[in-house]
Design a protein that fits this description.
Elements lengths: L1 E2 L16 E6 L5 E6 L2 E3 L2 E7 L3 H8 L2 E7 L7 E11 L2 H16 L1 H8 L6 E15 L9
Antiparallel strand pairs: 1-8, 2-3, 2-6, 4-5, 5-8, 6-7, 7-8
Helix pairs in contact: 2-3
Length: 145
Amino acid sequence: MRRDVPIEELGDLLERPLLATLATFRQDGSVLLSPIWFAWRDGGFVFAIGANDAKGRHLRREPRATLVVAENEVPYRGIEVNGTASIDEDPAVALEVFRRIAVRYLGQERGRAFAGDSGEGLHLVHLAPGRLRTWDFVDDPQLSS
């Protein structure tokens, strides 16, 4: 297994429509794991949340978060980001990014329809890496055949 793989060597991993798992902290300190759609932008992850979403409440109180994206097939590439989240409450910004994300996951027509025409009630979260961990199994002879 290769560790600390440069992001450029992860190929299309961050462009694929994979679900990411976001970890945020509840008020009692326990962890909430949430599957999310994401985009890699400006050296970090971005994703849209509803204005009243539990993830947003958690991040406003405790902005530390972890996000993991990993493949379910060879070469099992993955990335984990631990960092501090910031929230942009501008609905126009959130809609613009959410539209691009939805199109990536659903295709042009369905994605635009799903995202809608109003960003009202949407916020955009940016999670910049504080600590970054990457891996793949491309060099594992038992997995590459």
